[in-house]
Amino acid sequence: MASLTDILLPADQTEGTTNTVGKWFKSVGDPVAANEPLLEITTDKVTVEISAPADGVLVEILKAEGDTVEQGEVIGRVGPVGAGTAPAPSATTPARTAEFVRPAVESTGAETELSPAVRRLLKEHGLDAASIAGTGRGGRITVEDVERRIKDGAPTAAPAGGSGGRMVPHSAMRKSVAAHMAQSMAIAPHVTSVFEADLSAVIAHREKNGKTATFTAYFVQASVAALQAVPEVNSRWHDQALELFEDCNIGVGVALDSGGLIVPVVPRAQQLDLAQTAERLGDLTSRARAGTLSPKEVQGGTFTISNHGVSGSLVATPIIINQPQSAILGVGKLQRRAVVGANDQIEVRPMIYVTLTIDHRVLDGFQANAFLTKWVETIERWPA
What we know:
The protein is an alpha+beta fold. The chain is 24% helix and 24% strand.
């Protein structure tokens, strides 16, 4: 029997709650070249491509679109040219290929070849497979075919007790984000402290220096100062002990035009000055929106900033902690507000609300308040 090469999800290739097969670029029987992209893996943080391990033919797919996969798990197999389709399943490991032969949705009364992801979408939306034209290999129906049918206004099955509204399928990233957020709330008791900060000094510094740094760069620098002042915030909870980190690896949430959120990480931010921080943030943000970040650039974060004010909100609470971190900073919209200044005079100043949501297993209120006190002090006393 011809030797087969496993297609694996590499260890440490992705970081997220769940690794999900997003899309196969090849079908069983297609020729492949070594290092040619074969499929996408999606998590709540990033989408990465898995490449062919060798030249040959894709002979077996063990994980279909929409299936979850663990690090180190076999996703499929490549064989030499002429190897044909996948070998018969062994007694201990049931083989699955891309070309599943299963009964169609009961309403059709016919048989067709559907992947588990396709069957799931058909069932969720009450669709008849016979009403959808397949564009896959050999006319098979793909996930994209079903989603296109739904977006074109196909009738959908309303949830029990629902109003019969239009159903829009969740993307793999949205489902991963949802699972990650629910897990964080279930694990960590969330508590939020709210302060406000005057950005007058920061604005004056930006004006003096040609606005070369974004406000977020200042927020990262202030976070470094606060993390160093209250190191317990830069930590991770373990059942036996609290793990404290020397490096301030600060993630910054970036909203994507296609929906969802990604958190690229500025590693060792304590070693950067303001200009270096601004340059690094600009590069990460632009590549996050272009979808060209590497998996390593969303890994290893020890603290996260949610700059939710860019979309208009003044306060957001609680902001869900990015597990397994211990806290997350929220920065609201810049707004000119009347405040009581020196000599009890009413003054109009550029103000923001800033929040710290903590894992109450790790931190108490006095530590959260000490962090925010240092953060606000750093922002308000920014040197000219």
